Here is the input.
Amino acid sequence: MAEYIIIILVSFLASVAGAICGIGGGVIIKPVLDAAGIIPVDTISFLSGCTVLSMSVISVGRNLCGGSGASFDKKTGTLLAAGGVLGGLLGKNLYQLVLSGLPDTQRVGAVQAAVLLLVTAGTLVYTLLKERIRTRKVKSRGGCLAIGLALGIMSAFLGIGGGPINLVVLFYFFSMGTKQAALYSLYIILFSQLSSLFSTIISGQVPDFSAKLIILMVLGGITGGLAGSAVNKKIREKQADRLFIGLMVVIILINVYNIFKYIN
Here is the structure.
C-alpha cells in the first residue's frame, strides 16, 4: 500500500509541475522512482511515458481550447510535433538497443541518469544566463522538423516525455517566453510519447506490470495535468521561471544519487 501511495503522489505532483513549466513531468517521475527502487528500470520508463502522455493530452487540450494566455502558431507547432513523432520512434528504438546491449538493466538506469544529469545541468546554466544570450527565430519547415526530431529522440530514450531540454531549445531557437514555450513543449511531448507508446505496443516490448499500477499513474497524470494547467493560467512568467529553476536543482541532485546507486 505504501508503494502505491508513493507512486500516485509522485505522478500527481510531477504532472502538476510538468503542466505548469512544460517539462512533461516524466523528468521528475523517472529519477524519483529510480531512486525509490520500487519498480524495475524498464517498467518505470514505460509507465512514466504513459503518465506523461495522459498529462499532456489534458494540458494541451485545456490550453488550446480554454486559452493559456500564450500565443500558439499551429504551423510551427505541427512541424515540431511531426518531427517529435519520428524522433519518438527513433528514440524508443535507441532505448531498446541500449537495453539489449547491456546485460544488467541497472546499467541502463545509470546511462539514462547520466544523460539526464548532463541535460538538466546544461538547462539550468542556460536558464540562469538566458537574459544575456542572443536568441534566434527559426521559421523554415526543415529547421522546425529537425528540432522536433531531436527533441522526440531525447524524450523517448530517457522516458521523461521531453523535460527541460524542450524549454531551452524553444527559448533559444524560437525566442519564446516560459509560458509560451511550455505550451509548445507539451504539444511536442503529446505526439512524441504517442508514437513511442504505439511503437512499444506494436513491437511487443511492453514490460510486465499490474493494471492497478498504470491506472494509478495515469490518474495522477490526468489530475495533475488539470491542476497544473489551472495554475499556469494564473501565475506570472517570473514565478514559472523560479519553479523551473528549483525543479532543475532537485532533479540534478536526484540523478547524481541515481548514478552512484546504479553503478555500485
In short: The mean pLDDT is 82. The two ends are 29 Å apart (CA to CA). The chain has one domain: 2-263. Residues 2-263 form one domain.
